[in-house]
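INTERNAL AUDIT FORM
Audit reference: QA-55
Scope: verify that the stored structure record matches its stored sequence.
Auditor: D.O.
Record contents follow.
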Amino acid sequence: MSQLFTSYHLPAPNGGITLPNRMVIAPMCQYSAIAGVANDWHLTHWTNLLNSGAAAFIIEATAVTENGRITPRCLGIWNDACEAAIQDRIARARALSPKAIVGIQLAHAGRKASSHIPSQSGASIAPSEPEGWQTVGPSDVPHLPHEHPPLALDKAGLELIKKAFATAAQRAQRAGVDFIELHGAHGYLLHQFLSPVANHRTDEYGGSLENRMRFPLEVVAAVRAVYDGVLGVRVSASDWVEGGFTPEETVVFANRLKESQISFMHVSSGGVAAAQKIPVGPSYQVPFAKIVKEETGIPTIAVGMITEPQQAEDIIASGQADLVAFARAFLYKPRWGWEAAAALGGQVEAVEQYWRCLPREHQKVFKELKIGGR
């Protein structure tokens, strides 16, 4: 039996969720929202990926405050309009999808906020420029030397962001998501606190690892206090630069997250240091997921240039991770999950409109397949 197509249970205080297979679609920013509000692009995108064969789909990085967006076109969940739009699109996408499990990634971009969308350079937008705003971070150190510096958060600012994450979790639950992932990776705010590259504070939130972990741990605890469902954290396990956050520190952080009954760790890397040197290649981040899994016992999701069915199968079968996340592979091939099922002898659920689309030799890919017509 294919291990990629076995079920897996993610624990939580409320009982958790059982996924029908080990494939997860990772968050992918669409840069298509207006004032943070989801629209019909998101409806089409979500519906498409919910019909992919993957067990779960995680909605893109969704800002918990307006100034926490990466770009002016990023999705948000900081007000009633944002919440209502997400709730509407989730409901409509689910109506056109087979038993879809939907997650959302809650995020604050910190010093990497106020940027142009990637197709328009991705460069930082200064507060004085149209659509720009003042960014915040653990310290007044910009991501790149020429960029406008962020405002170092004071105690009041930290409290407001903690409350924003907790409120966003409540909004997400009302909107109908099945689980939540907190974005602590890729150089965004929670990662900025963890990394010595971005965190130059001299108070109880900077310096030692214990201090650098303090704010991310407080955010997770604040969310867990109002949300008893499946709750995960995405983390950059290495900054890929000397003096940065390390895999060993990631293990310490992960073990501390157990105090908040964390459900999973989504293990990535990089994003906080302009000088990073990442040896990109197939499965290049999987060893980090393996370390977290072995050293902490927390369920892990591996991600990063996993593009072939047998590659994903081997990751699960060898115990390197519990789940495998895919991103651009599913944008390029939205039915990648079906292809993997055909290659590995697995089965997926699909809406009946597509039941007749497969080559005859692969028809067993669909569960409870019914062949009709003349």
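Auditor finding: record pair retrieved intact. The longest strand covers residues 56-63.
Action required: none
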